[in-house]
Every structure is written in C-alpha cells, then in structure tokens.
C-alpha cells in the first residue's frame, strides 16, 4: 500500500520541541544516531505515519530546512576536489530538463506499448515481515530481470551518464494516488533515482511516460562498473555469438556503435569483451555432457 501521508508542519513542530534531545553538538551539526529512542518517540507522536528512520533522514539531510529551524549551524560546503572535472556538460536531449540545482536532474522516459507489455505483467513478490502479524507480505512488481535493462537503456539515452544504477524495485499500487514507483541508486556517486507513474495506462497500445528525478553528484561520476547482462540484451548477445558465430569483440563493437557517441565514456550497460566471452562459455557448457571439453573463443 502507498505510504501514509503526514502533516509536515506538525512534524517540524515536534522536532523543534524535542531539539535538545536531537542535537549532540550544535557547532559540528552532530545529531543522535538512528538507533536512539528520540526518533521512535517522534514517530509515535506522529501516530506512526512516518517511520523513525525516515524522521532521522529528514533531519540528517536537512529536508524542509529543518536543521536551521532546530538551531543547528548549516554545514560549510566542502571545497571542490581538484580531481573532479570542471567541465562536465550533460547532453540532456529533448526530454531532459536540468533544474537550478547542479545536483538535480529531471527527465521523462517514454516506453512504447510493446516495451510496456513485455515488462508489465505484474508478479507477486513475497517479503518477510519485520513484525509478528504475518510471516510474509506480497507486493506487485514488474517482471524481474526484464524491466531493468529496458529502463536503463532509456535512461542512458536520455542522460548520457555512466552511472551503473542499481534498481531496487518497481512497485505497483492497485489503490491510491500513485500507480507505480521506481527506486534506484548509483553505488559509485551515491546519487538517488526515483521514478513515478501516476496513472495506469488507459489501453494496451498506449505509450507510458514515467517521470524521473536523479539527485546527487552524478556529473562527476566516472564509474567503470558494468551492469550485469540480463533480459533481451543477454539473449541477443548469446544468439549472435552462438548461432551466428560472431566473436565477443565484434558483438561489443556493434553494441558500442548503438549505445555511444564518439568520445563519450563507456556506458554502464555496454558489457566488456571478457563478460561476453564468459557468457558464451557458460552457454555452451550448459549443453555439454562433459564440462572438461575445451571451448575456443
């Protein structure tokens, strides 16, 4: 179910009233640890509409400018590292619009009717509950290992970023004001990705537009980490190497022509030649009775 809504002004009032229990050091800006009881107490005052961890995050990240309201000195911005590039423009494309902040990027991803049909078919995913009411809880999600490569390909086309984003979930809500949300993050620059689909598509042949926001130091991300080959991209690579006899280097070169522009950093969804060779080797071994047979590249 969607998260419960809470009154921000009421939450801020409780934080101000309990500021002496929250603050450890005014000058350094240190606050209580997430495990402290103060966060649980404020969550209880809010009728548990917001979790203790979320209360801590709001203060820690200075959301709603709460740190100034409770009397904490704003942290001094750190000097820019000389190792960071000074000129890192992003070719945002027609659907990308940068906000005034340098660390915020908003854009839309448009899925065709065929792409949405391939990834939609909601699947029940069971998770263990932390309470003792029920052992498991079921959520509706998009098809595992199918939706992530499609979504990431569109993201790279829109942003031209090299972030190897880890997609945590794509959760579907049958009831509420929100139909689907997507959450992910970059393990290198620690930027956070959030996608929202407000309404369910009206028909099976309609395009689906998902609104995304990406927050963090993504402009300075020079990650060389590659995303794992899954879904249609994996199947196409196997078909070209096994059935058509193409080498791993040749397959990678053709993928690079479609994914990259000249002079760009390699995107995270462009597999390495070694990863393609390993994939080819494992695929061939699956059909052998004796795994000791040597396989040529």
UniProtKB/TrEMBL annotation:
Renumbered residue ranges of the record's region Disordered: 77-98
Recorded superkingdom: Eukaryota
Annotated protein name in UniProt: USP domain-containing protein
Organism: Aphis craccivora (Cowpea aphid)
């Amino acid at each position: 179910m969607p998260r419960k809504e809470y009154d921000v002004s009421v939450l801020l009032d409780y934080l101000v009233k309990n500021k002496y229990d929250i603050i450890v050091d005014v000058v350094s800006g240190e606050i209580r640890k997430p495990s402290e009881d103060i966060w649980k107490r404020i969550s209880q005052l809010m009728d548990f509409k917001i979790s203790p961890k979320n209360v801590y995050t709001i203060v820690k990240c200075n959301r709603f400018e709460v740190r100034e309201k409770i009397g904490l000195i704003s942290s001094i911005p750190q000097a820019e590292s000389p190792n960071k590039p000074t000129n890192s423009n992003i070719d945002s494309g027609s659907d990308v619009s940068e906000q005034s902040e340098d660390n915020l990027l908003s854009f839309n991803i448009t899925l065709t009717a065929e792409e949405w049909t391939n990834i939609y078919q909601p699947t029940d995913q069971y998770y263990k509950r932390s309470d003792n009411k029920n052992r498991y809880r079921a959520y509706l999600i998009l098809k595992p290992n199918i939706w992530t490569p499609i979504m990431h390909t569109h993201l790279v086309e829109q942003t031209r970023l090299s972030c190897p984003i880890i997609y945590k979930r794509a959760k579907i809500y049958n009831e509420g004001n929100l139909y689907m949300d997507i959450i992910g993050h970059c393990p290198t620059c620690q930027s956070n990705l959030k996608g929202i689909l407000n309404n369910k598509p009206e028909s099976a042949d309609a395009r689906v537009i998902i609104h995304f926001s990406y927050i963090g130091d993504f402009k300075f991300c020079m990650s060389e980490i590659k995303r794992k080959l899954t879904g249609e991209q994996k199947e196409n690579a196997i078909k070209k190497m096994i059935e058509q006899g193409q080498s791993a280097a040749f397959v990678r070169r053709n993928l690079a022509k479609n994914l990259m522009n000249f002079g760009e950093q390699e995107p995270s969804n462009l597999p390495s030649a070694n990863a393609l060779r390993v994939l080819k080797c494992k695929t061939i071994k699956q059909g052998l009775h004796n795994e000791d047979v040597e396989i040529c590249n």
